[in-house]
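In response to the reviewer comment on reproducibility (Comment 2.3), we provide here a single inverse folding case reported in full, input and output, so that an independent group could reproduce the run without further information from us. The structure tokens appear first.
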């Protein structure tokens, strides 16, 4: 595709003799199209050229040599050059690229040969997979796809929380209350109920906590029966998660969780000792981080067991050896920010600073209801993700039965719309903000929602079906797409690669989700204003090809955000 910014920078550089790359960085996109397609702020040059910005702007305008097929017009407003590009060239370059690249439109290979390891989802086995884990699953899954689209080799790791005191709690609970629950018919449900009950009761009964510690110690010591029970709980929990992952269309390349690192923990403890980093504090072994304004990082507790941080250190070291990564991204809630700072600092002190600089903690906010109350917790009012997804599907089924009872594949459609709505709601706001979970909002077909985008997608599809053909690019007369509404769409299509690059740089899928909303809205505006199927064949071909380009884009981009499964 033609790179307009580069062409503009080159033309300005020819006049000013300043460095092209630098000039390109200064180019902005004005807030509204009356001010041009691009704007160049001349005050950035005032220091170098020792003149007032409006004078610079006028001089550039007078002397610039522009190719009319690229730049149509330049206005000077104050210290700005407002640049209008040739719309027919824009249309041609975008649509030809769509025709050539099809589903790869907007992709690139800047990541070729580089590995990006993404640690995401990571639910804690034996605890309910609640809505909080949805965010990691969905954001991580989206980043996985984004990096792949940019040519990286993404590796998805589900670092299961399959070790730790929660097993001690569940096992202690089972030993006490097994007969009170229906293990025969609902094993997973019983385990979860026991876990929740244990957490409630231990608040007043510290002896329960001690019992849980004993069980976990037995597990760490490799006691046979305890280990067998652990294996069993892990297995049925995973089977249960798989149901949710299937609904979400989530896949992982590795399920190496915390337990996988059991035999790799002593070597880390020894290495820390050898490097003189461990010290004793109240019976525990810790790395002192006072110098860095952080609490000490506990490595071995006073009870002699390892903890979460120990396992993350072992896992990071293992990943360094295994994946030769360019980036290692941890998609984990904001409440663990300190944990990752500590782990990264300890690794740095151990001499792995170079690798630590390639690690990023990508945090996200909580899931809250309309009133700002946190959803899903240990309190017993846990909201299970699978139940929520099924509720979404049921709600959409009700809407279909009311509005379109004769629809074919009702169940399939309800699944795509319901699950898509939940995923999109999660992705569409900047990740660090708390996500508001509100049924009416996320299922609103007119709002900035998944169902709205799916609706527009189906529109584009049915227009093409009605026409019965997709025009050949050779038959498209680019001058027939001159309306402002069409140009708006083309500009968005043109920006896509930059948008996805930006989403990757910031590890922020919401940039892409917002983009999908903009694209859908711009198509809707065009479609409400102009007939696509018309008597005039050249007009129809041009508009139909544009419709095809939008359809293609929503489909690809939805895939990239891993939102729904556009058919
Ligand atoms: N299982 C943890 C939790 O739910 C998240 C693990 C995230 N990944 C990691 N490498 N620590 O809190």
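Designed residues, in position order:
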């Amino acid at each position: 595709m033609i790179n307009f910014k580069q062409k503009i920078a080159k033309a300005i550089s020819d006049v000013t003799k300043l460095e092209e790359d630098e000039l390109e960085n200064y180019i902005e996109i004005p807030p509204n199209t009356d001010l041009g397609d691009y704007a160049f702020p001349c005050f950035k040059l005032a220091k170098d050229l020792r003149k007032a910005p409006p004078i610079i702007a006028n001089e550039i305008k007078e002397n610039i040599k522009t190719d009319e097929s690229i730049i149509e017009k330049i206005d000077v407003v104050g210290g700005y050059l407002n640049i209008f590009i040739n719309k027919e060239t824009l249309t041609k370059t975008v649509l030809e690229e769509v025709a050539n690249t099809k589903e790869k439109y907007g992709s690139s290979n800047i990541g070729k040969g580089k590995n990006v390891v993404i640690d995401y989802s990571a639910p804690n086995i034996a605890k309910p997979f609640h809505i909080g884990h949805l965010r990691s699953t969905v954001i991580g899954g989206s980043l996985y796809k984004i990096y792949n689209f940019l040519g990286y080799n993404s590796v998805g790791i589900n670092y299961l929380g399959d070790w730790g005191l929660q097993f001690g709690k569940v096992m202690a609970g089972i030993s006490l209350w097994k007969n009170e629950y229906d293990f025969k018919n609902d094993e997973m449900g019983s385990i979860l109920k026991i876990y929740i009950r244990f957490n409630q009761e231990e608040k007043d009964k510290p002896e329960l906590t001690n019992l849980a510690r004993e069980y976990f110690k037995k597990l760490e010591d490799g006691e046979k029966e305890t280990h067998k029970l652990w294996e069993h709980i892990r297995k049925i929990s995973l089977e249960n998660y798989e149901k949710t992952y299937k609904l979400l269309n989530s896949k992982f390349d590795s399920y190496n969780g915390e337990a996988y690192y059991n035999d790799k923990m002593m070597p880390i403890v020894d290495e820390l000792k050898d490097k003189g980093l461990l010290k004793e504090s109240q019976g525990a072994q810790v790395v002192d981080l006072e110098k860095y304004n952080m609490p000490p990082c506990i490595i071995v507790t006073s009870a002699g067991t390892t903890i979460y941080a120990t396992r993350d250190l072992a896992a990071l070291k293992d990943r360094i050896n295994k994946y030769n990564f360019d980036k290692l991204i941890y998609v984990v809630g904001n409440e663990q920010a300190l944990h990752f700072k500590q782990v990264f600092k300890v690794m740095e002190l151990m001499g792995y600073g170079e690798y630590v600089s390639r690690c990023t903690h990508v945090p996200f906010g909580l899931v809250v209801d309309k009133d700002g109350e946190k959803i899903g917790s240990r309190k017993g009012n846990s909201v299970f993700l699978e139940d929520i997804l099924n509720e979404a599907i049921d709600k959409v089924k009700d809407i279909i039965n009311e509005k379109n009872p004769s629809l074919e594949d009702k169940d399939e459609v309800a699944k795509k719309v319901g699950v898509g709505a939940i995923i999109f709601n999660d992705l569409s706001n900047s990740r660090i903000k708390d996500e508001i979970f509100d049924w009416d909002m996320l299922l609103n077909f007119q709002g900035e929602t998944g169902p709205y985008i799916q609706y527009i997608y189906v529109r584009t599809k049915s227009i093409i079906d009605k026409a019965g053909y997709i025009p050949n690019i050779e038959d498209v007369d680019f001058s027939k797409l001159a309306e402002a509404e069409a140009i708006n769409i083309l500009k968005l299509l043109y920006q896509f690669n930059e948008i996805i690059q930006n989403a990757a740089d910031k590890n922020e899928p919401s940039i892409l989700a917002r983009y999908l909303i903009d694209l859908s809205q711009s198509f809707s505006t065009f479609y409400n204003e102009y007939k696509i199927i018309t008597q005039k064949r050249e007009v129809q071909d041009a508009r139909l090809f544009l419709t095809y380009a939008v359809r293609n884009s929503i489909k690809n981009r939805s895939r990239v955000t891993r939102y729904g499964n556009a058919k």
